[in-house]
Amino acid sequence: MASLPETDVPPAGQLARRLPRLAARWHRHGAALSALSVRLAAAGLAYLLQIVLARSLGLAEYGTFSFAWNLVTIGGFLATLGFGQIAVRFLAQYQAGGDAGLAHGFLRAGTMVTVGGALAFAALGFAIFPWITAGYGETCSRVLAIGLIALPFFALSDFIEGIARSQGWTWRALAPSYLVRQGLIILLLLGAMALGLNLDADYAMMAALVGTLVAASLHLALVVPPVLRLFPPAPPRHAFREWRQAAGPMLLSDLAVLARQHGDLILLGLLAPPATVGLYFAATRIASLLGLIEFALGAAFGHRFARQARIEDPRAFEALYAETRRLTFWPGLLAAIALMVLAPFILQLFGEAFVAGALPAQILIAAAAVKLAAGPAEEALAMAGHPETVWRGQCAGALLTALLCLLLAGPWQAGGTAIAAAAGTVFTTLWLALAVRRHLGFQPFAARRSGEAG
Question: Are 409 and 267 in contact (CB under 8 A)?
Fold first, then answer.
């Protein structure tokens, strides 16, 4: 009996034929879609949070809270000393190679390093209080003191996120930090407003502390028990030298990234009043939406890059890179255009005074779009064993941003700061693109998928 054309196959038969293809597509891109959905939901919560903060605190108090929370965020990310990032690479490879002893050793060492690093950064934060008080006022020091209590729990969540990402556990990796923490802060702020309380930066930071504590506890419960079951009991083995050699450049890279992403805000705080800092911070929140796409693909494909690097097949690695870049390019371009058009209207939700941040937001959006066009160069280089190249590029971009900020932030305020930050982003992107070509053997802007290479 002749087979029917696919258009004549009954609906149930068509579905049966399509299910394997749909399953394959979900297997390839499901983690990326999950990560993107979490980050989109988190972005919605973040904007609701920023709107509530801006309207309840006022421009100056909002600027004070934003500055203090940025310092806590920087310390929390750096406190893992690079172990949060290399967890994706090493735990993925240990799981693929069945090396439970090294996995247990890494988990123990990473936890100790994270806790120790967090306490050290918190102590440093308390030590610079005289400088903070002199430059930003006593209120900022008081708000920062509350935030520093949250710093160790912030750092622990960051390390656990890396553990979960190493196994492709997208929701477990991202939901506590990006949904639960922000959601709790919003509920606490809205609850206080409903009770008629007079909100200030101190209360906002207390809400952030509670959200951070709950998020870290949830991260521990969701990730640690299953990852311990994944690796069979075995005597812990340690590869401190290898871990240190990988973590050192990642720490420097994180430091440079944070300096580039937050240094503009800190330098602007030295050269402009708190109201201008608050306006610029609101502009950066709009531009950061494009980073959701990059982050989602990094979270979904980072462990795949690590496993592919272990196989040492250059063509397959290039094909994976091309697949990831294809998923970032068009969504990123369309999102950039939409955000540039909508920036004034979004900022109006923060308050009339924030609309002046539309041009800085558009400058930052354009730079973020250039970064997306190059694909996941940073993730690919780090997972392929070239973290030192990543940190050099990030460091060069951070230095350029800082230099231009010092030159432009004073006379041009938020607009000049945006130009400095955008220049640093584009410079770093081009540096990493050249590094991909040199170390991985292909052009990131023209990477070819399987079937196209050769």
Answer: yes
* Whether 382 contacts 253, CB under 8 Å: yes
In 3-state terms, what secondary structure has residue 309?
A: helix
Q: Are 377 and 442 in contact (CB under 8 A)?
A: no
pTM of the prediction? Answer: 0.66
**In a shared domain, residues 210 and 273:** no
Note whether 223 and 264 are same-domain residues: no
How many Å apart are CA 304 and CA 398, to the nearest integer? 28
User: How big is the chain, counted in residues?
Assistant: 454
Same structural domain, 258 and 344: yes
* Cβ-based burial of 346 (10 A; exposed 0-12, middle 13-18, buried ≥19): buried
Residues 373 and 258 in one domain: yes
Q: Supply the DSSP symbol for 272.
A: S
- H helix or E strand, kind and range, residue 142: helix 138-166
Rounded CA-CA distance 153/115 in Å is 9
Q: 186 with 140: CB under 8 angstroms?
A: no
What's the total number of domains in the chain? 2
User: DSSP assignment, residue 376?
Assistant: S
d(CA 221, CA 206): 23
CB 110 within 8 A of CB 104: no
Encoded tokens for 396: 């060069």
> Is the distance from CB of 47 to CB of 282 less than 8 angstroms?
no
Residue 130, judged by CB atoms within 10 A of its CB (0-12, 13-18, 19+), counts as exposed
The pLDDT tens digits for 321-339 are: 888 888 778 878 888 999 9
What's the angle, vertex CA 426, arms to CA 422 and CA 432, rounded to 5?
145
Q: Is there a single domain that holds both residue 218 and residue 283?
A: no
Structural domain including 283 reads 240-454
Could you tell me the end-to-end alpha-carbon distance of the chain, in angstroms, rounded to an integer?
41
pLDDT at 375 over 50: yes
In a shared domain, residues 199 and 280: no
Instruction: For residues 285 and 230, state if they share a domain.
Output: no
Picking from 273, 280, 309, the residue whose alpha carbon sits closest to that of residue 90 is: 309
Which of 188, 222, 238 represents a domain boundary (last residue)?
238
Check pLDDT > 80 for residue 146. yes
